[in-house]
Each structure stands twice: as C-alpha cells, then as structure tokens.
C-alpha cells in the first residue's frame, strides 16, 4: 500500500523520535547535542502542524512508569503528540505506528533518536518498506558510548557517520531518501537532497 503524495505535491512529514529515554540518553554519545537538535525539530514541527510521534521502548530493563523509561525532560511530549510503545528495534513491529502515521496522512518520516545501528536503522528501513519517504537527520541520531575494549563495534562517531553515508547513497525504488542536518529540515515543504559527493554533516 503506497503512502506517496500526489505527483508534484510536497511531502507530508512527521517527526519520529525513537527511544530518547532517560536511561538510554544517559549512555549516549553526544547526548546534549543530539537532544538539542531533536528539541529544535520538535519546536519547528509543532509550529508547522506536523505530527510529533515518540517510539518508546518498554521491556524488562525499561519498565513503564520508571524514571529510566521516561522520555528525557527536554523532549517531553506535549498535548497533540503521540506516544507509541514498542518492544523491538523496529518501531513498526507489533505497534500502532503505521496506523498513526496513515491516519495523519503522513508520507515522509523524519527519523531521529537512539540507537543509530539498532532502533534507528531498523525503523528507517521499515518506513521505506512500508511506503514512506525518509529523512535521516544527520545530527539527530546517536548511539551508545563504547568502552575502548568493546569488541568489534565501531566507535560511536564512526557509526553515526557510517549510517549517514549509507543513507546518502541508498536507492530505494519509488522512495525519496535524504540525509539532512536538523537545521535544514523543513516541515512545511520539501527540502533539497544531498546527492552522492555533496557536502553534508557526518
């Protein structure tokens, strides 16, 4: 089922904030900068009337009602926002996310949150598979801080840059995939794409 807008029409975006919860942001790389980027996006999305949707992990380590499970105060939902509980990296799996987006006429998902390689990546790919265009916010997603002896994980700054580069070059039939810094995301009309080789933040 397609959710593409009519030919020539601008996209109808929604801001998706994934797992920006106290316990997770506490272990995040560039936590303050990422929170600030997402907060700015929230403000602009709400001002433009674009939906702000939170995907909120809940499991044995993030029990509903606990402080660690709550969204960080700087990004706290307000009236009109939507919270979608989830139990898997894919924010669409077994949740109401797809129904929420379709009910609002959303055709493009602006993806932010934690963690880059897990919930952000899984959700962005599923959004494409379900017919949505995707904007990955280059400075609006992050991952955990890695100890120097953390095995073969990439360093956090390298992981973020790696995934940004993948999405800059990702071609998905019938979809528009873009990587934009938070400052260039426009919730009113379409914004320019970064093509391969074009300058953009890492």
UniProtKB/TrEMBL annotation:
Residues 14-144 form the Isochorismatase-like domain. Keywords: Hydrolase. GO terms for molecular function: hydrolase activity. It comes from the Bacteria. It holds the Pfam family Isochorismatase. Gene3D superfamilies: Isochorismatase-like. This is Cysteine hydrolase. It comes from Streptomyces durocortorensis.
């Amino acid at each position: 089922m397609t959710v593409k807008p009519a030919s020539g029409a601008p996209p109808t975006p929604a801001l998706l904030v994934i797992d920006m919860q106290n316990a997770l942001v506490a272990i995040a790389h560039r936590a303050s900068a990422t929170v600030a980027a997402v907060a700015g996006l929230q403000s602009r999305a709400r001002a433009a009337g674009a939906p702000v949707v939170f995907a909120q992990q809940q499991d044995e380590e993030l029990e509903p009602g606990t402080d660690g499970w709550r969204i960080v105060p700087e990004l706290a939902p307000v009236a009109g926002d939507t919270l979608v509980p989830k139990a898997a990296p894919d924010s669409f799996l077994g949740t109401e996310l797809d129904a929420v987006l379709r009910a609002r006429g959303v055709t493009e998902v602006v993806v932010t949150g934690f963690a880059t390689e897990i919930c952000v990546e899984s959700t962005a790919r599923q959004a494409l598979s379900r017919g949505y265009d995707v904007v990955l916010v280059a400075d609006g997603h992050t991952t955990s801080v890695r100890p120097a002896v953390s095995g073969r994980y990439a360093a956090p700054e390298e992981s973020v840059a790696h995934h940004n580069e993948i999405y800059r070059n990702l071609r998905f039939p019938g979809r528009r995939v873009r990587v934009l810094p938070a400052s260039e995301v426009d919730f009113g009309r379409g914004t320019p794409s970064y093509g391969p080789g074009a300058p953009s933040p890492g």
